[in-house]
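Catalogue entry: protein
Contents: sequence, fold tokens
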Amino acid sequence: MQKRNFAIVICLSATIFLASCSKEDDNTTPPAKTKTELLTTGTWKFSTAFVGPNNVNAFLQGCQKDNIMTFTAAGLTGTLDEGLTKCNAGDPQTSPFTWSFASGETVLNISTPLFTGGSSTFTLVSLTATELKVSQNITVSGTTQNAVVTFIH
């Protein structure tokens, strides 16, 4: 009888031990994407623009708001596409640019200013899989103000 009880205990112990083993890899999350991976996935379209606390979307021309930017990781290059409408009919449909991160990936340098009066250096406010938000100081009517522009996929 004791041999039988001993065998049952061994079987139960083995069953519990094997059942408690699991692959830990099943519940692991993939590593977070780098800022370069986030920036170079898909195309970016204008969403909103604020100067100080004011939404300035209404002051931008449609030909500015329909532009599309594509960043590529290879060679840190990109393309600015004029979209469906051009502000100047003589402008090319697409223009190449180069880009880079600086200051620990908190600054985005683009070789071409994205809007009149702007510079080619942007502070990276946020970057997710679906949203790119950048800011820079601009001078409006002699007053320096912060402009924040959001692009989306």
In short: The chain has one domain: 36-152. Residues 2-20 form the longest helix (19 residues).
